[in-house]
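tool=predict chain=A
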Amino acid sequence: MKAWGGLAALAVLMLMACGGSASPTAASSPQPSPTPTPKQYKAQAAVDAWLKAGLAVNDVAPCPAPAAGSPIPKTWAEDVCFTVPSVAPNGGQVMSFDTVANERAIVAYFGLFPSLAPYVYVHANVVAQLNSGIAAAEAAKYDAAMSAALGPAPAGVSP
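tool=predict ok
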């Protein structure tokens, strides 16, 4: 009888070691869903949002390539420049990105120069950088229009 009791205990231990216990395993537990990829917009979507909101945006065109040796991370999918009447011939640039990592790189770069790039706005996969001569209240209107049209920044990306 002792042999049968020992074998029964051994069988229970083996079942538990093989996952035969009643407790849920990691495989049966629900896994958190991955963070969704932000919507993909072209840079023009920000310009369209500004125009729809009645904000002045002129001379929209592809930005010139950065100078050779420039430290700016060239991680954008597209980059357009524009002028704003209150600071013309200056204005800013708006960039679209294929990945969150690329978007983070440019936001981090602009963060190194807060006096030169105080207005950096991130919405979905688009980053806008407005000229430092624009008044804060005016810059906030550009941000609000982007937010309404494009939505928030991806998790972990903020100026």
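Residues 1-27, 32-37 have pLDDT under 50 and may be disordered. Strands lie at 58-62, 78-83, 91-96, 119-123, 126-130.
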